[in-house]
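Slide 14.
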Amino acid sequence: MSQTVVKAADGSITQLEIDQRVFDLYDEYCHGRIDRREFLSRAAALAVVGSLGMAQALLPRYAQAQTISFTDERYVTYPSPGGNSGTMRGYLVQPKGVGPFPAVLVVHENRGLNPYIEDVARRLAADGFLALAPDGLYPVGGYPGNDDDGRDLQAKLDQVKLRTDLLNSARFLKTHALSTRKLGVTGFCYGGGIVNYLAATLGADMQAGAPYYGVAADTASVSNIKAPLVCHLAEKDERINATYPAFEAALKAAGVDYQVHVYPGMQHGFHNNSTPRYDEAAAKLSFKKHLV
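Slide 15: predicted structure.
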């Protein structure tokens, strides 16, 4: 059955009622199971009017999604023993004032530190947090400027060492001179899974976590979690959601303070305002639920 597609004044597709099969193909593409060419080819082959246009509309538009102006270079480097190169780089954003400030680590998706994640860090700084968005691709040259190459680079990294790089990033931020030593962590997709991993790894050194549609932590590690968690899931995200029943059972057994919010009708990536998966109401509501 064809779907109604509403266009913005500039002609771009903005309606969330893109055919679900196109969303499903985009999810395959985002997670590296098919490449860009196959995504567009398979979308075009669907018996849906305008399906190729729907698929093209889902590709990110970072310039349009920027909400806080990018005005200067804010990159810092720091040691990362045991990581992919021994050194990491991150995008550090300081709020106005002299500090210290509560700190939030912002963990990117499976493609490196792209402009959307940088903008999320700036939004958090505007709300009074010292925000650090590490670039897991720094050991291989950093985010390459496009998501396709970034996804390929991240997949080729030693994944255990990548987690170590992100763990070291959290420790760097927590002990930063401008930090109150109160550390929150948020992340999206791959980064959401890292939030759960860091909660189990850091234990009492992490004060709050807000994973977005990220895979659950290994249940054997859940007893180490001390930070309250506010988990955000999209209803139409079966692969990620399937990891949560056992996770929730383990959280309850361990006495962890947690919430799991499933947003009705939402797609994986509903917080990312660079594609039509974005839902403004759900994204804003999710931020109101944070405990940091």
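Speaker note: The beta strands are 75-79, 87-93, 101-107, 130-134, 179-188, 208-212, 229-236, 258-267.
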